[in-house]
Every structure is written in C-alpha cells, then in structure tokens.
Amino acid sequence: MLDIRNATVRYAAADGQEVHALDRVSFTIPARSIVVALGASGCGKSTLLNAIAGFLPLTDGKILLDGQEIHGPGGDRGVVFQKDTLLPWSSVADNVALGLRYRGVPARQRRERAHELLDLVGLSGFEDKSPYELSGGMRQRVGIARALATDPRILLMDEPFGALDSLTRETMQQLLASIWASTGKQVFFITHSIEEALLLGTHILVMSPRPGRIVARYDADFVRRFAETGEADDILADPAFIALRSELRALIHAAPEARAA
Amino acid sequence: MSLALETNETLRDADAPPRPQKPRRAPRTGTAVISTVTLAALIGLWFAASQLGLVSPLFLPSPLEVLHQLQSIAIDGYAEGTLTDHVLASAGRIGAALAFGIVLGIPLGLAMGLNRWAKGIFGVPIDLYWGLPPLAYLPLLIIWLGIGEASKILLLSLATFAPICYAAQAGVRSVPVERINAARSLGATPLQVFFTIVFPSALPEILTGVRIAIGASLSTLVAAELIAARSGLGYMIMSAANFLATDVVFVGLVVIAAFAFILTTLMKWAERRLVPWKGKI
Fold first, then answer.
1. I need a surface site. Which of A1, A60, B14, B73 has the fewest CB within 10 A?
2. Contacts of A83 in chain B (CB under 8 A)
3. Comparing C-alpha atoms, which of B194, B250, B205, B274 is closest to residue B62?
4. What is the pTM for the complete model shown?
C-alpha cells in the first residue's frame, strides 16, 4: 500500500515567482487498485507521480510505501513514461531486463524473465529486435514489460498512452486492464482523458491547478468488467458510465484553468 | 507513360493483397554514380585544359605529369625522403594528436558535462585557446618546445582536443532526462547510470567530435609543416613551391585528399558499427 500524506511541492520558477505545484495532497493506493489522477495540464498530476517515483523531493509531507518512507527512486516502484525511454543500442529483451542487470541477475535468468514478460505484453518473438524497429504502441508494451521486470510493488504510469493513436490506445488499455487483473499490481495512473480514467480506475482523483490539489474523489468499478470481457463498447454505452462521465466533465471544466484553455 | 502505369496497376490488382514494397536501393547507388561521374568530369576538364594548352603547365600540370611525378616521388623521393616517408611522418603526427585528443578530450568533456566545477575550471582556458588561430601560437610552441616533433604534436593535439571535448560535453547534456530517470527507477546506481545510459547516449556526438577533430588536425598539420619541418606532406609541398614544381605540389594535394578521404570513410564505418541507432530515435 502506498500512503501519501500532505504531499506539498513548491519551487521557484524561472521568473522568480513561487510555483505551488502540489498543495497538501493526501490519499492512499490500496493493494490491487488502480488509482487514476485526472486533470488538465498544470494540475500537478505529473509532479505527484514524479514525487512518488522519487525523482522530485517533497517540500513538505511524506510518502510511505508499505509503511516505509521513500527517499529517491528505486526498483520497488516501476515507472512507465509517456515518452518512450528505451535504450536504442540494446535489443528489446535487454531493454526489458535492464533493471535485472542493475541487480546483477545472471544473463540466462534475465533472458528467461524477459521472454516471460514479452509474452505477457504480447510481444513474443521480438526479443532480438531493436526498439527503433517497433511501432509506438509496441515500444510502450516493452516499456511496461521493463517496469514489471523487477517485480515492483507499484506501477507508476505517466500518461503512458497519451502519445498513441486512438486504436492503439484502446488495445493498450485492454492490455493494462488484463495485466492488472492477472498480476494484481497496484497502479498509479495519470491521464487527462475522462474516459480513460473511468475505464481503468478503481479510484479516481480529480485534480485542479494552482495550487495543484485534489478536488474530488470517485470510486469506479468498470475496470473489472473491462478486464473480464475486454470490450470497451458496452461499458462506454453503460448509463452509469455516461452519467459519471458528464459529472466529471462538468467538474473539470469548472476549474478556472480549463476554462482559460 | 500512362499505358505503363495502367499495366502496372492491373498487375498489382491481379496480385490480390498489395504487398509492401521493399525499400528501393536505387537512390543510394544513384548518388554514388553521380559522384563518380562528377569526379570523372572534373578530371576530364583538367585533362582537356592542360592538353589544349589553355593554361601554362607552370600553373596547371597535366594529370599524366602529376601521375608520373607521383610514381617518381614514391620511388626516388623528394625533399630528403620518399613519398612513404612523408606520408608516415604526417600520419604519425595526426595519429598521435588524435590519440591525445581522444584520451584526454573524452573524459574531460564528460566530466565537464556532468559537473559544474569541472566545467567552470576547464571551460575558460579551453574557450580562450580554441578561439586562437593555431598558426598564431605555433611560434610560441616552437620557442617553448623547439623545432622537433613535440611542438608539432602539441599543436595538432590542441586542434583535436577542443572539438572532442566540446562534443563529449554536448553529448552529456543531450541525454534525455527521462532516460536517466528510467534507469534510476530501475534501481541503477550513479555509476551504472553513467556507463549504461550517459556514455552510450553521448557516443554519437563524441564520434561527430572526432570527425571534426580529424578535419581540424589535417588543416593544422599542413600549416605546421609549412613553417618548421624536415618531413611530412606539408613540408614536401612547401619545398616544391620554392622551386615552382607545380606537379609535386599537386602530388602533395592529391595524397592529402586521399588521406582525408580514407579517414572520413573509416569514421563513417565506425559510426555504422558503434552507433547504428543514430538518428533513429
């Protein structure tokens, strides 16, 4: 379980003005849950993820992973980035096993684990390809496999499907739902898509900017059905889904920043 | 034309699913052919100009004369050495300077890209000397180190060091921060981040720096040998110029051009081998 208590991040911007990126944000990510942070750009959701990943120190507050305060990044929190961060000089299998290499796992075991994970994300047989031979969606699959390789306690996903075309995006959402159902990993997921948040989240945090904070919390259950059936269409047509979507949309558009944009 | 297109279309339709076409190799060979033809045309023009007597042989010797002179210098030598002696003398200086530039420039450049203290301390002297024309401080190096090899190799090393050092520095700064963060979140230690992320990410820029250094060393080499040397291609050219032996000057130029071409080809090969991903992500 991940416990975020009063997380606050302030920093001085280039023009010397103080930016209040995150203001006393508190929530927990229970086991076997997908917590989605939803909001327009600038609402602090990426700051929040970077703080949980350990890339960014908190100005105030603390983050506990299974009761232990986190300091800096570590293999217990796997991160999937929006921009693909695969190493172009390594094969797909070596990319997936990068975290295991850092731990000194022998090459043979690394290869086996990479094979297993590529199978999980539907990329069997791509072990020896180079990342630049893959499409954007495939690279993101490799990114997910890499983050899972060290068997982290939580998966942090920073708008992982934001740069993909809508068809690939749907497939990737299905993939994530089924991986979540089969591994039971806790997931923290960032998006600015209301549908994506509802489709994938067991808990949804709506955030608003300046200062970045949580303005509303929702529980949802569509992801279980999604993981079972793999069909998004029925869920998107569900009246409960539609009602919640309108509510969330109204809430986000009420934020001053969204109106300005 | 339109008929040919139609036939093509019909054929493709008959082949029910349109198969993805293999990338054509034609453009690549096309460029090579154009380049070869251009080179041949230039030599042809040169041949015609000297054959028709358009230019005095004193200014422009014929290609045959240059070829003949090349053979004679290779066997009998010119200016106290055979062609091989001169080539080896020049190549040795360039080799030593490149080795110096690579061995010192890469680590220092990496350090300067990673650490602001290193950048602050070494940045100023490098910026200052890199702005100076090498020939302007060559007299100083000769006063300090004498007329022998040391002053020449130091001059050339200064010419190769700066571009390699700058390139390594720029390479470090161009490493995407997400790539570093990804490695850290996978549990990499700072040393592992350096060897598995920073150095390979900077490698394409470093190799570009080495290419620039080769160019800089070649131009500085000839200049250095023109002023104070007893061997080398620049010295050979300078001696020939004193006697208006234009054909020997041409031989020197042709050999230097070939030398530069070989080095550039080697670097392109090294880039293909070491950084095949360059420009692809």
1. B14
2. 176, 178
3. B250
4. 0.81
